Amino acid sequence: MRILVVNPNSTASMTARIGAAAKGVAAPGTEILAVNPPGGPESIEGYYDEALAVPGLLSAIERHEREIGVQGTVIACFDDVGLDAARSLATGPVVGICEAAMQTASLLGGRFSVVTTLARSVPALDQLARRYGMAGRCTIRAAGVPVLALEDPASGAVDRVRAGIRRAVEEDGAESIVLGCAGMADLARMLAEETGVPVVDGVTAAVKLIEGLVTLGLRTSKAGGYAAPLPKVR
Ligand code: 5HY
């Protein structure tokens, strides 16, 4: 099967790491196409960036379904940017990495914490936790790391994420951790070994969920709000 993994920000080095993480868990026979739109924000840090990233994300999905025949799509941004619009547009199923990671963490223990990048992303993620029915069992906390600091090994970003995980376990009562940025995709295993709690990365969790949906022949329902867009002048 062919799976599209879209990083909705325009930073190609992040897309490459996301793609490597996705390929690392994909089943034999799954082809991962990891892409980012050519324009749009270089990182998504809050509501304004989210809005600007959506048009490029939607055109990438439309093009890869039409030209390459991808059977499912992962939105590789923890804000689940454009998820509803993507589900309306796409023929195949679409999974956002926040929803995938939260659903996965909910299977691993009681409370969990999300360790994301900057404090400015926390309100949007709180809204997603409520939307996904997870608000009662999770805490969202920021590591104080700008998204693009994750691209620079000398930035100290990983140390801050590690410290965030330790505080989540001690102060939030977290039994497992969700990494709150696609740019953290390659850190999950190392941080789980170091901290002794399960650490869920949304990119890899979403790849396994989308593979499952495609294998089961399940697609987004078009019976309601995710009906295909009507033809009109836009
Ligand atoms: C992400 N931003 O996963 C989010 C994380 C955040 O560019 N990729 C981004 O900070 O909201």
UniProtKB/TrEMBL annotation:
Keyword Isomerase listed: yes
Listed EC numbers: 5.1.99.3
Top-level EC class: isomerase
Domain of life: Bacteria
Keyword Isomerase among record annotations: yes
Keywords assigned by UniProt, alphabetized: Isomerase
Molecular function in Gene Ontology: allantoin racemase activity
Family under the similarity heading: Belongs to the HyuE racemase family.
Stated name of the protein: Allantoin racemase
Lineage of origin: Bacteria, Pseudomonadati, Pseudomonadota, Alphaproteobacteria, Rhodospirillales
